[in-house]
Amino acid sequence: MPWRDRVHFHFSDENRLDIATVLNAYETSDHVYTCGPAGFMDAVFDAAQKFGWPTDAMHREYFSVPEDDDWVNHRFEVELASSGKIIPISTDKSITEALADVGVAIDTKCSDGLCGACSTRYLKGDIEHRDYVLSTAQKADQIILCCSRGAKRWPYCAGFVNHVTCSPTHHQPPKFAR
Question: The whole model's pTM is what?
Answer without folding.
Answer: 0.67
